[in-house]
C-alpha cells in the first residue's frame, strides 16, 4: 500500500509568519496569494497532503509519517448549546 506524502514528514516544510511554505519554492496551495497554508491547519492536526507534494522530485523524507493521533496541538471537541440541537466546534489547547 502506497502512503500519501505529507508535510509532516518532508524536511522542506517550513513555518514562517504563521504560514507553512516549501523552502524549495513550490506552492502548497492553489488559493490566491503566496502559495502557503495557514498554520491553523497544522495546529488542528489536519492531513496536510498538498497535491504538488505527491509527485515532488525534491521530497526529502525525515522518517515515517506522524501518526494522526500525534498531529496538532489543538483538539476539536463538539459542544452542545442550549437545547442540544445546535452544535459548534470548540477548540481546546492540549498541554
Word description of this protein:
- With 95 residues, the chain is mainly β.
- It has one domain (13-93).
- It has helices at residues 39-43, 51-54, and strands at residues 13-16, 19-22, 37-38, 74-81, 86-93.
- A 3-stranded antiparallel sheet has the order 1-2-3.
- The termini are far apart.
List keywords for this structure.
95 residues; mainly beta; three-stranded antiparallel β-sheet; two-stranded antiparallel sheet
SSE inventory with pairings:
Blueprint: E1 13-16, E2 19-22, E3 37-38, H1 39-43, H2 51-54, E4 74-81, E5 86-93
User: How many domains make up the coordinates?
Assistant: 1
Judged by helices, strands and strand pairing, the structural class is mainly beta
Overall shape: globular
The N- and C-terminal alpha carbons lie at a distance of 34 Å
Report strand %.
Answer: 25-35%
Discrete helix count: 2
Uncertain parts: 78-88
Oligomer: single chain
Short characterization:
The protein is mostly beta strands and 95 residues long. It has one domain (13-93). It has helices at 39-43, 51-54, and strands at 13-16, 19-22, 37-38, 74-81, 86-93.
Amino acid at each position: 500500500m502506497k502512503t500519501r506524502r505529507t508535510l509532516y514528514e518532508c524536511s522542506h516544510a517550513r513555518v514562517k509568519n504563521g504560514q507553512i511554505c516549501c523552502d524549495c519554492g513550490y506552492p502548497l496551495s492553489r488559493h490566491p496569494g503566496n502559495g502557503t497554508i495557514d498554520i491553523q491547519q497544522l495546529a488542528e492536526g489536519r492531513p496536510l497532503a498538498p497535491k504538488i507534494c505527491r509527485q515532488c522530485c525534491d521530497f526529502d523524507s525525515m522518517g515515517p509519517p506522524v501518526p494522526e493521533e500525534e498531529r496538532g496541538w489543538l483538539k476539536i471537541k463538539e459542544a452542545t448549546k442550549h437545547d442540544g440541537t445546535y452544535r459548534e466546534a470548540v477548540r481546546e489547547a492540549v498541554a
